[in-house]
Amino acid sequence: MRVCPTQAIRIKNGKAVILEEKCIDCGECITACPNEAIVALTDPIGELNRFKYTVAIPSPALYAQFGRSILPDKILTGLKKIGFDDAHDLAITCGDTSLAIEHFLEEYSGPKPLISNCCPSVVSLIQVRYPQLVDHIIPIKLPKRLAAKEIKERKSKELGLKPDEIGTFYITPCPVKMIAIKQPPSEEECYLDGAISIADIYGPLLSVLESEDKGSYRKSLESICILGIGWAVAGGMHRTQGLKNVLDVSGIAEIIATFDDIERGKLQNIDLIVPYTCPQGCVGGSLTVENRYISYNKILRLLEKLEQENVEACRDKREIRERYRQKYFHMQQKYEPRPIQALDEDLGKAIMKRERKQRIYDSLPKVDCGICGAPTCLTFAEDVVKGDAQLSDCIFNVPSRFKELTGELFRLLDTFGSMSEGKGRKPRKEKRRKKS
Amino acid sequence: MVSRHDLSHAFRIKGRNFSKAGSVSIDIKEILRELGIDPAIVRRAAIAAYEAEMNVVMYADKGEMILRLNPKAIRITLEDEGPGIEDIEMAMQEGYSTATEEIREMGFGAGMGLPNIKKNADVFELKSTVGKGTSYNIIIYLNSTGKT
Fold it and tell me: With an 8 Å Cβ cutoff, is B47 touching chain A?
């Protein structure tokens, strides 16, 4: 409950409830919850049967989940072995998009810094908490959407199938990408049919993977797009392009601090900020398997190797430039803000409610114990003012309730006939019991 | 014209406390947002409040900022105790700064603070007594389309 960066979780009747309007789908709660009470809504592999032809589109973060001797092409082959008809190397589309972003930066003259839209959770965070920054988000389509569209168009032509008979599945490192598929943050049409979590596919995939032998290693290496593979880690996206004045930020608290700075008018000399909600980037996603620092390291070593060996394997730059000119990469619609509801639509009433909230907050113990079901005393005060919680939900705040409970305890003790202990300590005992 | 619908909130700012610098403007931003003020206006108020706050942190000993809000306007006033400003006209010019090398090294003191407040406010009044302190009066109208 407390790890939620937007205070969107409440405990109601012993169960965690997520307030949709506040949730930015970052996945922090999934990573933190020891009881696995919160799970991501990803698709089971069985979903593949719904389609005549299926294509896997794995996030480049998948490439970092296995040993160093297993390169992307082996993983793509593995995906075909476990049931997909084809597997698309998303890193190549990421590489195209990197170039498109570079073109966009060259001709851009609006407010700075621009903010990358690669992490959908960041986009939601901006829409909810920083509505005035939506104009800073880069309006370039996401690689996985571009890839899905391209695959559907190409495969339906090649195979003579209808586009909806072809299933495109994103292999995702985090829950947010799943939600971004089901409910895109903008009204952009989506060609992805589902998302399968890396964690779900890891086991089956591992059992069919083959290590590279000496002969195939070089060939495999040469198939990797250096511009795209880095999308999986913070700092990897623009590394090869050598863009200056770009900041890489990862981790939700860091992002919030950075956005606060932008809102105060700082960082205007920075061209682009590339934020990832998960620490270290997508490799740190809550649906990944490998330790995020290990997988971060793997991508980094791979990038170094590619640089050393001078391998690029990306699509032709002139072709991308031509596509960019034809607006292939541009989003048709802009991102819209979705600010958190104000306390009241009427300003006068909102001010009164705020004052009441302040009074309530002042009366609370401010220990953020969480027994009321809200993560902090401040959010509890807000819930009370909004009518979503009652003052009596706070066990510290209401002496009458406390008295009631104490009385109940004494009655219980009487019943059991054990009155030998000192009475002063009993209320505390009761309190502890109520907590658990 | 003070009615019970008006909001008034005071914040204390300590001079030279760079670790807390900027927190008052964040609080102000949160309050205004919670009250449903137009995001563009919240941003202008946040920038103006931040620059004023930073002036206290950089130059003064301490200050008190008061946020007031009625259905027509946001008013931010700030009284600080410190060296004051010798030449207000000069200080209002972009790029003019009396910041020390140490402050500049931290990325502050570029001489944009006061001009930035002026740019974001509808009304900006500044009074100063050398050796005593400076007072700021910043007003941003809620129905204005903004000067930006």
Answer: yes
Same structural domain, A73 and A137? yes
CB contact under 8 A, A342 and B36: yes
- Tokens 């900022």, residue located: B65
Q: In terms of residue numbers, what domain contains A415?
A: 399-435
- Token pair, residue A380, equals 């509890």
Q: How many CB pairs under 8 A join A and B?
A: 59
What's the length of chain A?
Answer: 436
Q: Which residues of chain A neighbour B38 with C-beta distances below 8 Å?
A: none
Could you report the average pLDDT of every consecutive run of 10 residues in chain A (436 residues)? 87 85 83 74 82 95 91 93 94 94 92 92 90 92 92 93 92 76 57 89 91 79 90 89 88 93 86 94 92 94 90 86 92 82 85 89 87 90 90 74 75 71 49 48
Report the C-alpha gap between A25 and A180 in whole angstroms: 9
Q: Would you say residue A429 lies in a domain?
A: yes
CB contact under 8 A, A347 and B50: no
Q: Any idea what the CATH number is for the domain that residue A256 is in?
A: 3.40.50.1780
pTM: 0.81
Q: Tell me the C-alpha to C-alpha distance, in Å, between residue A387 and each of A109, A355, A382, A391.
A: 45, 15, 9, 10
Residue at A9 is within a domain:
no
- A376 interaction partners in chain B (CB closer than 8 Å): none
B107 to chain A: closest CA residue? A266
Q: What is the DSSP string of chain B?
A: ---TT-EEEEEEEETT-TTSTTHHHHHHHHHHHHTT--HHHHHHHHHHHHHHHHHHHHH-SEEEEEEEE-SSEEEEEEEEESS--S-HHHHTSTT-----HHHHHTT--SS-HHHHHHHH-SEEEEEEETTTEEEEEEEEESSS----
Is this complex scored with an ipTM above 0.85? no
Residues 6 or more apart whose CB falls under 8 angstroms from that of A428 comprise none
Q: Which CATH architecture has domain B7-141?
A: 2-Layer Sandwich (3.30)
B42 touches chain A (CB under 8 A): yes
Residues A274 and A143 both lie in one domain? yes
Low-confidence ranges of chain B (pLDDT < 70): 1-5, 107, 144-148
Query: Is B118 in CB contact (< 8 Å) with chain A?
Result: no
Same domain, A183 and A88: yes
Domain positions in chain B are 7-141
A338 in contact with B at a CB cutoff of 8 Å?
Answer: no
A17 touches chain B (CB under 8 A): no
Residue among A197, A84, A184, A96 at smallest CA distance from A147:
A96
